[in-house]
Amino acid sequence: MTLGCAPTAPLRANDPHQPTAWSGRGTIFGEAGPGLVLTRLVAGWPGVGCYDHDMLFRTPPKRSFQVIARSLNIVCDAASMARRAARGYATVGRFAAYGSNFNFDPDGIYSYSTISVGDDVNLGSRPTMLATRSTIRIGNNVVFGPSVTVRGGNHRFDIVGVPISAVTDEMKRFEDDLGVVIEDDVWVGGNATILHGVTIGRGSVIGGNAVVVKSIPPYSIAVGNPARVVRERFSAAQVIEHERALYPGKRA
Ligand SMILES: CC(C)(COP(=O)(O)OP(=O)(O)OC[C@H]1O[C@@H](n2cnc3c(N)ncnc32)[C@H](O)[C@@H]1OP(=O)(O)O)[C@@H](O)C(=O)NCCC(=O)NCCS
Fold first, then answer.
1. CA–CA gap between residue 125 and residue 90 (Å, rounded)
2. Structural domain boundaries enclosing 99
3. Lowest mean pLDDT, pick from 36-40, 60-64, 113-117
4. Which of 71, 164, 196, 220 could form a disulfide with 178 if both were Cys (CB 3.0 to 4.6 A apart)?
5. Is residue 179 part of a domain?
C-alpha cells in the first residue's frame, strides 16, 4: 500500500476511473467500496484519512448512498463546529488579555498566558504563537492571514558541550526571549513568520510568506525573507489624515 499526498499517475480529464467532482479530494473508497473502508476503520487501518491510492474513489456510488453520506457529512460538520465553539469558549480566558471583537482559531497553537490582544483582532486560521519566557503583544485592529507564526524566543545553541535539546529554560538569557510586539492597524499576510525581538510598527503590512527578523517602521509594506520594506503604505499627509480618523483626539 502506498501512502502519499499526491497521485502517482497524472489525472486525466473525463477519465471515468478518476475521482469525480463530488468526491472532493477523491480519497474516500477503494474499489471494494464502503464495506472495506468500514472494515479498515474498525480495524484501525493506518492509511484511512490519508491520501491512500488503494483507497481512491473510482466509481460513483449509488445515489442513495450519496444522500446518506451527505447527511452524515452534515452531522459531522455540526459536531465539528460544536467542538470548535466549545474549545474557543474553554480557552479564550487563558489569553493574558483580549479586547472586544477578538477572533481566533481554537485549533491554533498558542502559549495563551503570554499573549495579549487588543480590540478588533483576527488571528486567522491555524496560527502558531509561542512565547514561553517572553510576551507577544498585539494592538487593536490587527488581522492575520492563515498560518502565521509568531515566535517569542529562540533556543540557545551556543553552549559548548551541551546539545540544543538539553538547554533548559534556566540556562537561557534575557536576549534569547525578546518577545514580539505588533502595533495597531497591522495586516500580516498568510504564512508569514515573525521572530523574537521584532516590533511591527503601527499601520504596517507584512507580505505573505515573509520572515520578519528585524523591526518594521510604522506604515511600511515589508515582504520577503528576510523581510524588507519595499515601500510606504501612505504618504506623510495621508498618514496624518489616517491617524486623525483612527485616533481622534490624539496628536499625530
Ligand atoms: C504585501 C502585499 C500586500 C503587497 O501587495 P501589492 O501592493 O499589490 O504589491 P505588488 O504586487 O505591487 O508587489 C510589489 C513588489 O513586492 C513583491 N512582492 C509582493 N508581495 C510579495 C510577497 N508576499 N513576497 C515577496 N515579494 C512580494 C512583488 O513581486 C513586487 O516586486 P517588484 O516591484 O520587484 O515587481 C501582497 O503582495 C501580499 O503579500 N499580500 C498577502 C496576501 C495574503 O496573505 N492574504 C491572506 C488573506 S488575509
1. 18
2. 95-246
3. 36-40
4. 196
5. yes
Question: Is residue 27 situated within a structural domain?
Answer: yes
- 125 lies in the same domain as 226: yes
CA of 204 to the centre of ligand 1 (A): 13
List the residue whose alpha carbon is closest to atom 48 of ligand 1: 145
Give mean pLDDT, residues 135-150: 98
Within this chain, do residues 161 and 238 fall inside the same structural domain, yes or no?
A: yes
Please choose from 223, 225, 228, 233 the residue to mutate so as to test ligand 1's pocket, defined by most ligand atoms within 8 A of CB.
223
The reply to whether 115 falls in a domain is yes
pLDDT at 249: 81
Q: Whose CA is nearest to atom 5 of ligand 1?
A: 207
Mean pLDDT of the chain: 84
User: What pTM value is reported for the model?
Assistant: 0.79
